[in-house]
Amino acid sequence: MENFHPKIAVVDGNTLAAIGLRQMLQSVMPSMMQVDVFGSFAELEANDPEGYVHYFVAMNLVLENRNFFLEHRRKTIVLTTSTDPNAQMRDFHSLCINQPEKQLVKSLLMLEQHAHGQGQNLPKMASGREKLLSDREIEVLSLIVQGFINKEIADRLNIGLTTVITHRKNIMEKLGVKSVSALTIYAVMNGYVDINRI
Question: Number of C-alpha atoms within 13 angstroms, CB side, residue 88?
Fold first, then answer.
């Protein structure tokens, strides 16, 4: 059972939104999770729903199939379009999908850390990933995800601006990512920056 990968289901009739969320979830849990997308509750039901550790489900589908999701409330995250607590379902964890990417990533990371205690119930990251970056690159990464611009990073670390740009390029190449959101996910998941500092 060494290669066990927990499965997450995204259940939403909006295919584009569901595929986008799958991409983000796979970024949050790189190579550790299998994320399946279903366009309806019937599709989920036909594919062994008990085999999933979490369901990310559109609110209308939770309302239509309330008994099932109430039975599985600890596994269910309701996808909402509002951050207003009064517009969310009382018995469930909620994730507002109508927010800027950086905030959505932060919300996903907070859900993961709250539910899994710093990842303690998740499979371990591949051992080769632990020290991909040099100490200096980790310092630069930490400052990037905290929102500092290249000039500020150079000043804080007492290095040249071109050195910061080179580090930034090398970090993205080593990690195989192209966005600050992906860097943020990597930094938080590896403990390089506290989620409350992003």
Answer: 18
